[in-house]
Amino acid sequence: MANRLSKTVCFVATLLLGPMALANTPGGESRSFPDSEQMKSTLSAMGFNEPWSMTDGGEKQPLNNGELWIREGNYFAVMSVRDDNEQAMQLSLINNLSVCAQLGIAATGDSSKSVFSAFSHLTGKALTQPETTASNEQSPFHYHVLITEMIAERTLMQCGVKNQ
Known about the structure:
Elements lengths: L1 H22 L12 H10 L7 E3 L2 E6 L2 E6 L2 E7 L5 H23 L3 H17 L5 E2 L5 E8 L7 E8 L1
Antiparallel strand pairs: 1-2, 2-3, 3-4, 4-7, 5-6, 6-7
Helix pairs in contact: 3-4
Keywords: Signal
């Protein structure tokens, strides 16, 4: 039984991590930043299969609690944050971070660990400084997170990645 479980875990890990390993070059450098069509294809492979609709300057796809946006060189999500109580807010932020991380992985090909870590850190900064975009400066890609109540009079989280 333990052997089957070990094989299953290895198989699942290969399925999840295989695309990231292929996305990196032999020298360990990340792949080039994807264009809109490549990004849509990668997001579709990750389970974002709703139809895209055209907008001024880009395209968007509905999410359960918001939207994914694609503008050439700038890929982001705008999602609601349930802030009824602390527990609801924590769960909502964790779910939103999952979308942010998938978006970052799709755009950069970086490991899930580094992307999730970057977005977690930026979300912490954004929560302590609402209405101010938190962003990283050490990466070839620009990760950003904004927590705001000024749009639509409800709490929203915007996160994304663009080419620096």
